[in-house]
Amino acid sequence: MTASVAQIVALTLGVASAALWATVATSSRPVRSPAWWAPALGAMVAVAGGIAATAALWTHHWSFAADRVVLAAPLALGGAVWFAISGIADLRVDARRRASASTRLSAWTGVVAAAMGLLGAFVIGAPFSGWTAAAAWALSLGAIAIIALVVVRPASRRPFAVVSAGVAGVLVVSVAFTALGAAGPDPIHTAAHGHEAVTGEDPVQGFPGTDPVSVTQLREERTEAADVRVELDARAGTYELPSGDSVTAWTFGELGGRLIEATQGDLVEVVLNNRDIAEGVTLHWHGYAVPNGDDGVAGVTQDAVAPGDSFTSRFVADQPGTYWYHTHQAASTGVVKGLYGMFVVHPDDGAAPPDLDLAVPLHTFAGRLVMGATDEVATHVVAPGAEVRVRLANTDQVTRAVAVSGTAFRVLAIDGSEIADPGDLDAESVSIPAGGRVDIGFRMPSTGARIDDTGSRSARLSFVTADGAAEPARVAPTASFDPLRYGSAPLPDWADGPFDVDRTIVLDRLPRFTANGPAYAYTIDGAVFPQIEPTVVREGDIVALTIVNRGYETHPMHPHGHRALVLEVDGKAPEGALWVDSFAVGPGQVWRIALVADNPGIWMDHCHNLEHAALGMVSHLAYEGVVSPFDHGGDTGNSPE
């Protein structure tokens, strides 16, 4: 049973037990009546099933079961045992009478237990700390006491009971909220206060340590002329697609963005000019480990670039691979509207380049898929036998999948990291998480080839051997590519641990107060940005992160400034070293990754479904000794999601 299925089973049984226990508690039928015993037995079965589902959840990860193990399950079990003892006593005394006050109160305890199970799942979330447990137990026992005073007491004592219940309710809620308030994390902003004299700035976030540096100091130090220099103009415009449809978009000069190419070792300089984007823009180099000061996150590494202003990024292109760039100012709006482009670093290893090398972003405008700059067929004439490499980047918010027809193919790279010994694949779909990249390679057959997005019937890449030649028919994939079972790169020596930092983070969706007010938010460890506790590291640390998705939606997680080694997915280790920087944590999944803290800074680690990030799912990897003078909101309008 998967974790998601076990969660649904536990919740369903919880609702069923609540309804059945409430039926028993409010029934006026005699205890010997089948109409009384039938729901009672059903409630007992539901409790047993719920405990079994909780045990199943625990086998997947403690975070799935913590709230149930600590609160709902013992309360439900205790109520069921109490009910059995009291109910049997009622049968022995006088089976023709209504259940005793004790028996009815035990049934109400079952209702409270089920309610607390739902509260834990949909309101409290995980991690379930000691303070949280204390608050939840206070609420539970207080609720049972109030029920005892109001519902079960004789009618002659009801006025006193109601007053007592009101006082008890106030006390219970006060204790609960006091305990919950004590559980709040220390946000990243608190530690930086009082270090102005050290950095020469007014740091508002970070962990200063003994000799702090600012993110503004973590930039490329070389000052000579760049090998690759590009100017990008961010502007709004209307673009006509090949289909005849028009889209209103924000772009870096052209739909799909300008392709920036460099060779390994080049010094790259990119000047961003904001022509007319009132909300502001930045340049974030997705997947590429630039110096922290060039990471392009408004409110963390810089202020948003206002209309009429510019920002220059400089870094050495020493990491070959396929990457992309996009705004990280109000990204849930800016990226969706088109502020993105491709960035490719070619290796300087003397190997012959492919005969055709394409970089193609996949993006949806107004419900229509655009591959590169076209929403229809992009045809390429290629000689038979030529080597073709297609670099695909998913710039959308959700996972996309592609399929190759007409030829066998290989996955050459994932997220910019080459795959060792890639084998031939045929009729397999390849999923690309939001923000992720996949490089596909094949030898051009004489009969042509095509690459389709499995969710689109219009946009595709077509490869033919001559103008006017027919492309092969689209073939439906019969299997899904599994990156855990592909390639054979050796693991680094540190992959088996021990780890200097080893943290579990829990993803969920819970009602919370965000910067924009109350919302059904996306949370990390039960909190929303900027209240999420960062992962604090020192340079040189080996860091392991276990990511648990308690929710029912996929979260494509993206740590900035580092590539991550996948250690396990749901307990299964990859057959070879699998390096990623964007990975989709599905509902009920548990991923375990590791990285080397070798790039000092304050780095975002967030869900790349940018709507989820905008609703709270943003954390940080923060190095000790690094602070930032930038902050979100305020006069600059920085919005770092």
From TrEMBL:
GO molecular function, one term: copper ion binding
Transmembrane segments: 6-24, 36-58, 70-93, 105-128, 134-152, 159-180
Enzyme class per UniProt: oxidoreductase
Domain Plastocyanin-like: 248-348, 518-621
E.C. designation(s): 1.-.-.-
Coiled-coil annotated spans: none
Alphabetically ordered keywords of this record: Copper, Membrane, Metal-binding, Oxidoreductase, Transmembrane, Transmembrane helix
InterPro entries xref list: Cu-oxidase-like_N (IPR011707), Cu-oxidase_C (IPR011706), Cu-oxidase_fam (IPR045087), Cu_oxidase_Cu_BS (IPR002355), Cupredoxin (IPR008972)
Name of this protein: Multicopper oxidase mco
Protein source organism: Microbacterium terrae
